[in-house]
Amino acid sequence: MVKVLLSSLVLWSVVWGENKNRNGGEDCDAPLSSKVTHLRMSQTLKEIATKLKDTSRFEPISSRKQEAQLSREGMWSVLQAEKTNHWRGIPFRKAAQEMVMYPQLIWELQPRTIVEIGTYAGGSAVWLADTAKTVLQRDVPVLTVDIDHANLHPLALNNKNVHAHLCDVTDYASCPDFEKALEANNMERPWLVSEDAHFGLAQQLEWWHTKLLPGDYILVEDTSPDQNAWVVHINSKATEPVDKKLSIVRQFLEKYPDHYAIDTYYQDMFGYNSMKEWNSILKRVA
């Protein structure tokens, strides 16, 4: 991705230089506001390229606080909007921050396989497939798993890039079709795994630890305690409280401190932990 950004910057410089040559060495026809805009664009591209090359963005869990810059009231406003979110008419439970973060991560990571744990109606799976197609200009298989597909929308069921599997994610050994699909994509790395099931997270993470390779990403969604307060507020029978997910992720990372790092470029994109995910945008580094 850094190469792409730098190439864009070089291309812009060449085009601007050609415009200057046509005008006798001065870019006389370009208004001052246009020059300022181009300058700001080049500075932004340089800043992005610098940040993406900075390996210090990957932090161990030991250096991270369990807090967020975004207030609880602010998070509740985000979640209120998410309730009515949809993608191509399919219910779609991604917040505004995730809709900005995922496309940029997909562009940088260039995943060959995307896995979604927790299908619901399939809106997120279709969105991930559409986003990858738009950003990468190629098809990327999205393997999505759930214990029940009663809510699966026809657009998701008939999407050629969405592959829905019935699976009890607390026991992946009982999901041979899903395992076969993963094996078929085993060489198609890197993987981008999105966990959003709210069931058996500790067992899931241990299982995925045996499958992920360095360079792969796993994102555990809905780990914000502020979101947990919201979930309890609207549904007192939540299956696995989100604050429990946060502690499970931390315990997992403390068990494997050399294997995973938190990608703060995305984790703190909107301020420290200011997302539905707290310290759970993870890259496998070893």
Fold and architecture overview:
This protein is an alpha/beta fold and 286 residues long. 46% of the residues lie in helices and 13% in strands. The protein is built from eleven helices and ten strands. An eight-stranded mixed sheet has the order 1-9-10-8-7-4-5-6, with helices on both faces. Strands 2-3 form a two-stranded antiparallel ribbon. The longest helix is centred in the N-terminal third of the chain and has 22 residues, at 32-53. The radius of gyration is 21 Å and the shape is globular. The two termini are 21 Å apart. Residues 1-28 have low confidence and may be disordered.
Instruction: Calculate the mean pLDDT score and round it.
Output: 85
Largest sheet: 8 strands, mixed
**Structure classification:** alpha/beta
Q: With helices defined by DSSP (H or I, 4 residues minimum), what is the helix count? A: 11
State the shape.
globular
Order of helices and strands: HHEHEEHEHEHEHEHEHHEHE
Low-confidence stretches: 1-28
The side-by-side strand order for the widest beta sheet comes to 1-9-10-8-7-4-5-6
Strand content: 5-15%
| CA(first)-CA(last) distance | 21 Å
Q: C-alpha Rg, in Å?
A: 21 Å
Q: Which percent bin holds the helix content?
A: 40-55%
How many runs of DSSP E, i.e. beta strands? Answer: 10
